[in-house]
Design goal:
Distance between the termini: 79 Å
Strand content: 15-25%
Number of domains: 2
Number of helices: 5
Largest sheet: 5 strands, mixed
Low-confidence stretches: 19-34, 284-295
CATH superfamily of the largest domain: Cupredoxins -  blue copper proteins
Bound molecules: copper (II) ion
Strand order of the largest sheet: 3-2-1-5-8
Length: about 300
């Protein structure tokens, strides 16, 4: 009897963490729906703002439910075995060593589970990798430590995008995420993003669009997104690329088609004559820090 009491007590103690886990999972599902940037206490994914991210979010939640059910099922089996088949409860154990039915079941059921996981997984991979006919193409080049963008179809307009320092930020611009020149794209249009790097590996990532793609020197990777809502979407370089890896954020402003055309007309003039690239964070505006120049400088040291 004492033993049972002790067991009930320990089960009661186990219930609290279990309850906490359920609350945490529930919070994860109810991600806040404001700006597309990390939120305090955020535990789920950022709210989806592209078809790919909607699918990723669905797949994530689906897998979470699946693994939770499997884990609870295995836990229940373990508890059952411990209680029912311990030496005291079951002094003369059965000598059974084979059971065809149960062996078929525990082979076939995992296969079915894997197929159920594989089908949406491959569907999602094709959705991500099969770039649809683009309405707009943007090329992003990673530098130590900022991004440079080119609109090849728009007079090859090109500009750098550098993180704003604390002095440069205005009210409402998030620290370590806001940049001087945002990428601007129209809402609801297929944007093909070509990604490369000029020095070391970087990674162009915008969580709300479900885009995370390596920027590799000498190689052109491609991805795409179709922003479903206007707004500003923040991301960060997601490949350790050196000292200022944490300070080369990505900011994409999604606007209506009219606003985009207005911006485009201004941007074409503003960025037309500018030689690329011209500066990095913290250095004088007119210092040439293009990769060959910087490599030469490093070699001379
Ligand atoms: Cu980087």
């Amino acid at each position: 009897m004492k033993r049972l009491e002790a067991l009930a007590k320990s089960l009661g103690a186990a219930a609290l963490p279990a309850l906490l886990a359920i609350v945490v999972i529930a919070l994860g599902f109810a991600a806040p729906a404001e700006a597309a940037q990390p939120q305090p206490w955020e535990m789920g994914l950022q709210p989806a703002a592209s078809p790919v991210m909607e699918e990723i979010t669905w797949f994530h939640n689906f897998l979470l439910v699946l693994i939770t059910v499997i884990t609870l099922f295995v836990l229940a089996l373990l508890i059952w075995v411990v209680l029912r088949y311990n030496e005291r409860a079951n002094p003369t154990p059965s000598k059974t060593s084979h059971n065809t039915m149960i062996e078929v079941i525990w082979t076939v059921v995992p296969i079915i589970i894997l197929v159920v996981v594989a089908i949406p997984s491959f569907r999602l991979l094709f959705l991500q990798l099969d770039v649809p006919e683009p309405d707009l193409t943007i090329k992003a080049t990673g530098y130590q430590w900022y991004w440079s963008y080119e609109y090849p179809d728009q007079d090859e307009m090109t500009f750098d995008s550098l993180m704003l320092t604390d002095d440069e930020r205005t009210e409402g611009q998030p620290r370590l995420l806001a940049v001087d020149n945002e990428v601007v794209v129209p809402v609801g249009k297929n944007v093909k993003i070509l990604v490369t790097a000029a020095d070391v590996l970087h990674n162009w990532t915008v969580p709300a669009f479900g885009v995370k793609i390596d920027a590799v020197p000498g190689r052109l990777n491609e991805s795409w997104f179709r922003a479903t809502k206007p707004g500003i979407y923040y991301g960060q370089c997601s490949e350790l690329c050196g000292k200022d890896h944490a300070f080369m954020p990505i900011a994409v402003r999604v606007v209506s088609e009219d606003e985009f055309n207005t911006w485009l007309a201004e941007a074409k003039e503003k960025f037309a004559a500018r030689p690329q690239p011209t500066r990095i964070a913290g250095e004088a505006e007119d210092v040439d820090v293009s990769a060959p120049t910087r490599l030469a400088a490093v070699a001379a040291q």
